[in-house]
Amino acid sequence: MGCGFAKSDKLKKPMRAALLIQRWYRQYVARLEMRRRCTWNIFQSIEYAGEQDQIKVGQQTHIPSIAGKLHIHMTPCDSFRNLISHIFRENNICRNVDWERYFCYKSIEVPKLYSGPHLSFPITCSNAAELVEAFKNKQQLHSRYVLQLLGETWRLLRILPNISQISTCHSKEITICGDLHGHLEDLLLVFYKNGLPSSEKPYVFNGDFVDRGKDSLEILLILFSFLLVYPNDVHLNRGNHEDHIVNLRYGFTKEVLGKYRLHGKKILKLLQKIFSWLPLATVIDNKVLVLHGGISDTTDLHLISRVDRHKTSVTPWLTLTLTQTLENMLWSDPMPQDGCVPNEVRGGGCYWGPDVTEEVLQRHNLTLLIRSHECKQEGYEFCHNRRVLTIFSASNYYEVGSNRGAYIRMGPDLVPHFIQYQANRATRALTLRQSVGRTERSALRALREKLFAHKSDLISSFQEYDPENTGLISLGHWACAMEAVLRLGLPWRVLRTQLVGDTLDGMLDYHLWFRELAITEPNTELSNASLLETMYKHHSNLETIFRIIDTDNSGLISFEEFRQTWKLLSSHLQTEISDEAISDLAVSIDFNKDGSIDINEFMEAFRLVGGDLLQNEGDPH
Amino acid sequence: MAEDKESAEAIVSEVHKKIRAAFDVFDHEFNKTVDVREIGTIIRSLGCFPNEGELHDVIAERLTVNRAYVHEHREDNNGTYLTKQIEEEEPTGYIRFEKFLPTMTKVLMERKFRPIPEDLMLQAFEVLDKQKKGHLELEELTKYMTQEGEPFTQEEMEEMLSAAMDPDKNLIFYKDFVSMMTVDDPR
Predict the structure, then answer these.
(1) Can you tell me the distance from the alpha carbon of A370 to that of A289, in angstroms, rounded to the nearest whole number?
(2) Across the interface, do A21 and B21 touch by the CB < 8 Å criterion?
(3) Deepest in the core among A113, A176, A363, A617, taking most CB within 10 A?
(4) Which intervals hold domain EF-hand (chain B) (predicted)?
(5) Model confidence over A142-169: pLDDT tens digits?
(6) Which residues does chain A have within 8 Å of residue B52's beta carbon, measured at their own beta carbons?
(7) A388 and A334 in contact (C-beta within 8 Å)?
(8) Are the CB atoms for B161 and A433 separated by under 8 Å?
(9) Of B50, B9, B26, which is closest to residue B100 (Cα–Cα)?
(10) What is the four-CA torsion angle of A262, A268, A274, A277, rounded to 10 degrees?
């Protein structure tokens, strides 16, 4: 019948319409995924490039390396050498007993007005739970209790072995958390979903508790208090951020000094000791190895367990064989190719391949390596034929919506089960499009700041492709120049649409482009433009060096120290900065006109409108 | 004529660079391979609108089967060696750039999988909106998207609803939805 034909025609139409809509929508989702992936690459490459800078700064200031690694055009004067060696001299004259006297909390009184939590020692599990509640309610623990808690922690850590052995007997399930990076929200979420640590609920925390997020100290205090209550059931592994040098740059030092103005220095010094005493790894049922970074071809757990860990620096500029092994445990990343090569991206540790995993695991009769150290979009990721598992517990690490956090639950069968989450209710309500958009805007902002910081280098590079000085270059050349200067390994052609507006016939007017990047210039009274640019480019390094030099953590450095800092940095940068220019600069920065420079005031000059993305101090919103 | 050849070469070269750039985004280990599951995203991000079937065809026919020749040696009764060539498939899971580039170049040069214009999209929604209300109910759209054509997974459906649906009324005002999605295109 005729209507039969028409009917089948009608039936077909909705199907075709549905097909069309599905096809269109899936294309859209793919484009979003591409943007998300690019954004991720941006954040990751800036993060690792930052870490690499950090290590180079450390390399500059370590005395034995200076002669070898720096090409110094001028000989640093004796007073400066003394200054630097004073900073890094390990004070072996002091015994623990002397340190304990220095760290003593007893003279600190807690005022009646104090409304925060009170701790009594030996600490109980209800104390620990109270502490969690108090921090949830944004209270601050009094410095007396902080020092007392840290003191007890230090004493406990000194008797723990380098590698903890734990077992899942009695059908205990173990919970393993990865990087937290000062994200208190995530820790609270884990406790909410999984329960507080106890003898029935053992936990392993796999390093990087501090830096970047704004509640690093609170996380430490919570972890340490549970460690004291349940020393056999709570295990902390040291991460590469449990290192006072790294903390100078990534925010933890600043956080502590900001929260504890009177006793912050003491607290930091005690934490320095605690970090050096943190255990390096945990082994579960003699089968599963848990540590922060990874392994290398020379990993030997028997050797590692006999090392004096508190005397051995893990910061990547000591190149003794033994310390290299420990450094690898905290800094390394897995790679898909076989072999073991230095980790050039981070500047510390190595990249190790599946063959190394197999060999090391077999040699120690292990079945699985659990590590952290790298942010993963889903909070966890397998690699090396599921023999290596990365677990990362800081959600929204790069930006709200960038990634989930996860933790592992593992029973006697040693099969990992994953629980994922994302702190911040707002994130869950965001659509894919909104969260990609937001993360992307954040990444692009960070990227634009980097562009501004490298402006002269970029312009010179563009000019190489524009010998006739027309002011125009092709987009292909633009992409090449960008990579040559910034070395971030980013897909510039794909990012082009986000960074470059109009082009004339595929040619870019690069001077105009820079003007249109629309970044507010930093607000200072400094007149020397190229000096300003150099300072801006290296302001993170500058700040780190300032803080290293500011040995008493007072926040102030003298003119002389400032001059010496500049000389050191400029020699490393191989730029010429005259003494006069530096003196003028010092005088103009001395905002208080009192003969010393306040580091915070100085760094204020480099805060751009829109946030401290390069400082990475936590949620930028 | 030489100019034409040059400009043709230039066009192909530009296309190659575009493909390379998109590929690199997913080449996590910088070893010129990507996971086959990301191929769809790469192809779509280059401006193509294949449906799932077409995508599957491109991958299955042109990308995944890698032939390697293995010689099998056997002795026959007289002691002579016989060799036989066996075609073996390389393990799937990864697509190499050398394989991807010619396939994708062809797709782009032949303008396969053309974009869907906005007005056609609108018409498609209007077909589903039988009563011409100007909007679709949650159940209506869900039924079509998860039962017809190349059905959405639950995750895809939820994601689309979160973007398209007015949460108070549980209605999809498709005209707004289509304009919003089209404006979103950064190209």
Answers:
(1) 6
(2) no
(3) A176
(4) 14-49, 116-151
(5) 999 999 999 999 999 999 999 999 998 8
(6) 22, 26
(7) yes
(8) no
(9) B26
(10) -150
Q: Which residue has the tokens 């062809």?
A: B106
Give the ipTM: 0.82
Nearest to A150 by CA among A98, A183, A102: A102
Chain B residues whose CB is inside 8 A of the A503 CB are none
Contact A603, A612 (CB under 8 A): no
Give the burial string for A463-488 (b: 16+ CB within 10 Å, else e). Answer: eeebeeeeebbebebbbbbbeebbeb
- Is A241 catalytic? The answer is yes
d(CA A558, CA A549): 10
Q: Per residue in A406-423, pLDDT tens?
A: 999 999 999 999 999 988
- Number of Cβ atoms within 10 Å of the Cβ of A560: 12
Instruction: Give the three-class secondary structure for A281.
Output: strand
Residue type at position A130: E
pLDDT at residue A208 tops 80: yes
Using the structure block, give the residue that is written with the tokens 């989450």: A421
The reported pLDDT for the residue numbered B117 is 86
Distance in angstroms between the alpha carbons of the first and the last residue of chain B: 32
Residue A540 confidence class, pLDDT cut points 50, 70, 90? low
Asked whether the beta carbons of residue B156 and residue A26 sit closer than 8 angstroms, the reply is yes
Say if residues A259 and A207 touch (Cβ distance below 8 Å): no
CA pair distance A77, A98, nearest whole angstrom: 33
Which one of A142, A183, A235, A241 is the catalytic residue? Answer: A241
User: Which position has the higher pLDDT, A105 or B80?
Assistant: A105
* Nearest chain A CA: its distance from B144 CA (Å): 6
Question: DSSP class of residue A167?
Answer: -
| Span A340-356, pLDDT tens digits | 988 877 777 899 999 99
Residue-level pLDDT at A282: 97
Tell me what the mean pLDDT of segment A78-99 comes to: 51
Residues facing residue A474 across a β-bridge: A507
Handedness of CA A29, A33, A36, A38 (dihedral sign): negative
